[in-house]
């Protein structure tokens, strides 16, 4: 793959030569290890940077991943590393484990404002991109030895410039120049000379990314990630999105820009813990621009679902969220037009009021689930579905169910009452085939609608363990932030087993299958601790290596 070689190899060679120069100086001074934290590295990043990403090179963090995975996934990772070595490093006789890993202390990648549309669309390390790298050196002798090895490469040319007393080196290999400078025990690199000059200005006292208004709170946000692998900071989310999408001739509509202003800053990260991979994001919100605040969900409805549930989405307060959504989109003509059209259609065709009959009574917890089943009409599909709602307005909910029953009758279905374990259930039946849908009340406030007769019975008359006792469910959701707005849960083993029996399974790439098969389950949640903060957390529970 020659394009990868031409883009990355010059950067690797330039990094090695410049790092060696830094190492030769700092090795004799014995001053290494500074710049190893996100905040320290951000002090040499210009304050106009749109975002910065801090990537850990600590082998202790990365080693945690080695506890997980299937043999197939392990082979895929090994192949990817071998491909990288072959495509990028082999030509210069570089070995990552021996030549780079011993001295590389930290990596920070900053995105500076684009000067043109070309820069936005360019690849990293091309002369058009506007990326700034900050590399920390943890071992001077190893870096110096690496530099000596690269200097033997006769295809690399370099020249030096003076900028405000700091040396800037231009290194060229295969026609791609890389500019760099040594700032204490850190090296800054960029595909443009101007970006390095900006970093030097920052180092000498110009405003830095670390000193940007509000960034202290952003950096201080506690993601509480064990073994963090990467962290990303966007101190001005709206400005970053606006500038990075400036290449689009149409630009962003004013309404979209107004929505972006609701998010002030974002910090996100990825780490590895005892169960697998954990991703977190915290957003600082403009309290005057946010009308939708999610209601905390106790997730008691989880106990209503059987252990063989494939997927589940839970939450609370649909009616409240719907009302806020309608209010917040009044100034968006396309959305308002779509809602008005939906209201007219439902009222005319089914005599249903979208706001009152559909969403108005859904003020408690809710759940949408998929449950494995190979019985009856579900045999060919492999699963059935459930909608479950808690409400304080049972009268309106029963009125809506009555209207739905009338629609079923008008479509030649038999609407038949049935008693299941003392619970009154109404089924929509197809003659000689059985029920396709059933609905009823599990208690005074909790109603359900289920697809497939086996699922109706599993919900109305549960037997066996419930989902909250599942080891996979506990691994995927057990340690997610509390309180929260609910969960999205996916049992990957059950899902892949289902897909394996379907023609769709052949469409999944073998490499993707290897990765998916190493996952036990996925859990996602979100919360609003207050009007100025929104949090999201994703947990990927991985299989332990056997």
What features would you describe in this structure?
The structure is a single chain. With 546 residues, the protein is an alpha+beta fold. Helix content is 36%, strand content 28%. A hairpin with a 3-residue loop joins strand 9 (263-272) and strand 10. Helix 1 (2-29) crosses helix 7 (140-151) and helix 14 packs across helix 15. Mean pLDDT is 82; it is low at 1-6, 23-35 and 116-128.
Tell the overall outline.
elongated
Average of the residue pLDDT scores:
82
Helix content estimate: 25-40%
- Radius of gyration of CA atoms, rounded to a whole number: 29 Å
Classify the beta-strand content into a percent band: 25-35%
Separation of the first and last Cα atoms: 35 Å
Could you describe the largest sheet, including whether it forms a barrel? 20 strands, antiparallel
| H/I helix tally | 19
Task: Give the low-pLDDT segments.
Answer: 1-6, 23-35, 116-128
Structural class: alpha+beta
Number of E strands: 20
Key features of this structure:
546 residues, alpha+beta, disordered N terminus, 36% helix
Secondary structure blueprint with pairings:
Blueprint: H1 2-29, H2 38-42, E1 51-55, H3 59-63, H4 71-89, H5 96-100, E2 104-111, H6 117-121, E3 131-137, H7 140-151, E4 157-163, E5 166-173, E6 176-183, E7 186-190, H8 193-203, H9 215-220, E8 228-234, H10 237-244, H11 254-260, E9 263-272, E10 276-285, E11 309-316, H12 318-328, H13 333-350, H14 354-360, E12 365-372, E13 383-390, H15 394-410, E14 414-420, E15 423-430, E16 434-441, E17 446-451, H16 453-460, H17 471-477, E18 487-491, H18 492-500, H19 510-516, E19 519-530, E20 533-542
């Amino acid at each position: 793959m020659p394009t990868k070689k031409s883009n990355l190899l010059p950067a690797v060679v330039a990094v090695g030569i410049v790092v060696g120069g830094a190492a030769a100086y700092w090795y004799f001074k014995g001053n290494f290890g500074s710049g190893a934290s996100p905040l320290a590295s951000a002090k040499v990043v210009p304050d106009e940077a749109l975002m910065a990403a801090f990537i850990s090179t600590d082998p202790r963090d990365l080693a945690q991943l080695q506890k997980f995975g299937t043999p197939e996934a392990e082979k895929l990772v090994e192949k990817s590393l071998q491909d990288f070595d072959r495509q990028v490093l082999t030509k210069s006789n570089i070995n990552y484990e021996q030549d780079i890993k011993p001295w590389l202390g930290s990596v920070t990648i900053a995105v500076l404002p684009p000067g043109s549309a070309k820069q936005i669309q360019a690849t990293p390390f091309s002369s058009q991109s506007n990326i700034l790298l900050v590399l920390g050196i943890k071992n001077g002798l190893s870096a110096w030895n690496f530099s000596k090895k690269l200097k033997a490469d006769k295809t690399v040319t370099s020249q030096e410039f003076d900028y405000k007393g700091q040396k800037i080196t231009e290194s060229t290999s295969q026609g791609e120049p890389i500019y760099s400078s040594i700032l204490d025990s850190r090296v800054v690199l960029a595909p443009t000379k101007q970006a390095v000059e900006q970093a030097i200005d920052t180092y000498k006292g110009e405003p830095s990314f670390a000193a940007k208004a509000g960034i202290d709170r952003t950096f201080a946000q506690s993601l509480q990630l064990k073994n963090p692998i990467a962290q990303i900071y966007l101190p001005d989310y709206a400005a970053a999105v606006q500038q990075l999408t400036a290449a689009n001739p149409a630009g962003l509509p004013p309404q979209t820009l107004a929505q972006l202003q609701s998010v002030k800053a974002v910090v996100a990260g990825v780490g590895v813990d005892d169960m697998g991979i954990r991703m977190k994001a915290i957003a600082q919100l403009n309290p005057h621009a946010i009308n939708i605040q999610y209601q905390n969900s106790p997730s008691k409805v989880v106990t209503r679902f059987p252990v063989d549930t494939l997927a589940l989405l839970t939450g609370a307060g649909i009616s409240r969220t719907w009302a806020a959504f309608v209010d917040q989109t009044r100034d968006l003509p396309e959305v308002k037009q779509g809602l008005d059209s939906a209201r007219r259609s439902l009222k005319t065709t089914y005599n249903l009021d979208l706001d009152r009959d559909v969403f108005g009574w859904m003020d408690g917890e809710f759940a949408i689930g998929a449950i494995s089943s190979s019985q009856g009409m579900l045999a060919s599909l492999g699963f059935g579905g459930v909608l479950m709602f808690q409400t304080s307005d049972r009268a309106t909910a029963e009125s809506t169910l009555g209207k739905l029953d009338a629609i079923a009758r008008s479509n030649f279905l038999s609407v038949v009452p049935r008693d299941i374990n003392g619970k009154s259930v109404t089924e929509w039946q197809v003659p000689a085939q059985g029920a396709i849908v059933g609905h009823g009340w599990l208690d005074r406030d909790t109603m359900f609608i289920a697809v497939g007769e086996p699922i109706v019975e599993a919900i109305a008359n549960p037997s066996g363990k419930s989902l909250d006792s599942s080891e996979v469910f506990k691994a995927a959701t057990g340690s997610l932030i509390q309180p929260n707005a609910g969960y999205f849960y996916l049992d990957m083993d059950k899902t892949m087993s289902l897909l394996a029996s379907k023609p769709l399974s052949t469409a999944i790439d073998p490499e993707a299958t290897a990765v998916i098969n190493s996952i036990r389950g996925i859990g996602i949640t979100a919360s609003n601790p207050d009007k100025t903060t929104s949090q999201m957390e994703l947990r990927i529970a991985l299989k332990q290596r056997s």
